[in-house]
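[stage:ingest] chain + small molecule (KG4)
[stage:ingest] validated
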Amino acid sequence: MTRILGIETSCDETGVAVLANGRTILANEVASQVDVHAAFGGVVPEIASRRHTECISQLTELALREAGGAPVDAVAATAGPGLMGSLLVGVNFAKALAYGWGVPYVPVHHLEGHIFSVFLAEEPPDFPFLALIVSGGHTCLIWCPAPHRYEWLGTTRDDAVGECFDKVARLLDLPYPGGPSIQKAAEAGDPAHIAFPRSMVHDGTLDFSYSGLKTAVLYQLQEGADDRADIAASFQAAAVDILVEKTKAAVKRMDAPCVVVAGGVAANRLLRERLQEALPVPVALPPFALCLDNGAMIAAAGASRLAHGHVGAMTDTANSSLPLQ
Ligand code: KG4
Ligand code: ZN
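[stage:predict] done
[stage:export] tokens:
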């Protein structure tokens, strides 16, 4: 049995997991900092890195205890992109453990981690597939022809969709993080109440734009709209429509046999339902618990990288704008 330790510290969640044979979760511990950052309405980078430092050792001890003890066969960590201070904590901790145990250190791209969260679902997809990654920092369509090969098809020209959920929640005085708050508020609202713009939907590209939608919500509030449930429902419908339409276009362009959806916003129930209804091909989704940042997805990507011989060196470091290649 091969056991991989996976460490995720790119933003405001410290995640440590142990995965057996690339698929079975033996431990998956996440220390969320949401309550700390909620008071500021968003992530404060300095606080995030300090928190990672405070809890990473204990969280790793806990995960290793649950998984039958140390050492493991490799240590994978998110090397980027993300907040530099936060990434440095995870990468250096992972390298120190790997060095001490004499096992490989495996750097993992955060988006590759999100993609591999789908391989932890009951029915993992086969390559090739189209990936829609939707998170607080990314909104992109990526063609994945084979393991660890990526072709960018489109990305956001301004805000990420999760960032837009977070900003609109702030405008509506809903708590951080915005995605779950808006989803909840929308349950009591009418999605057809306000016809928010679906920017760039029919422009022929696979790129996204979300800053206009956020501004449209602001204008509605300035003009006196005050029913938070209706605004939340109408906003969520527009945000999801854009993702569905662009993904449909990408499936057609690539003749994709399957679509993988991952990242924090993949936890959104309306998005999951609409994609499954609207796409002509199967949609592979991670379990709800693995949509948000976690160590298990990093361990899954790390296990595959290890199997393909892609390991890192002790001289490798974190890169806040690491490209996916
Ligand atoms: O992947 P993730 O944990 O962190 C990043 O890599 O950014 O995603 C966090 C993002 C936040 O913007 C949060 O508001 C959003 O995912 N999110 C949601 C939902 N749950 C989390 N957005 C919409 N609906 C949700 N249910
Ligand atoms: Zn993420």
